[in-house]
Amino acid sequence: MGSTIQPNSGANASRTTFKPVAATVPPPAANATTSAAPRLAAATDSFESQPSRKQAVNLTGGPPVVTVMPAVDLAPKPATYTVQEGDTGYAIAHKLGVSLEALRNANPQAGGLGGGTGGFLSIGDTLTIPSGTTPSQAAPVAATPATVVATPVTPQPATEATAAPAVVAPDDAAPPAQYTVVAGDNASIIAAKLGVSVQALLSENGSAEGLVAGSGKFLQVGQRLDIPEPPPPPLAQAPTGSPDLNAAPAMTTAGEANQESFGPDSADPTRYDGRCLSFVADTAVQAGLGDPILSQPNAATALYEAQRQGRLYTDMSNMPEGAIVFWQATGKNGDQGHVAIYLGKDENGADLMLTSTGFGESTGSGVQVMTLDQLTGLESVEPAGWMMPR
Question: Rounded to the nearest 10 degrees, how much is the dihedral formed by the CA atoms of 83, 84, 87, 93?
Answer without folding.
Answer: -50
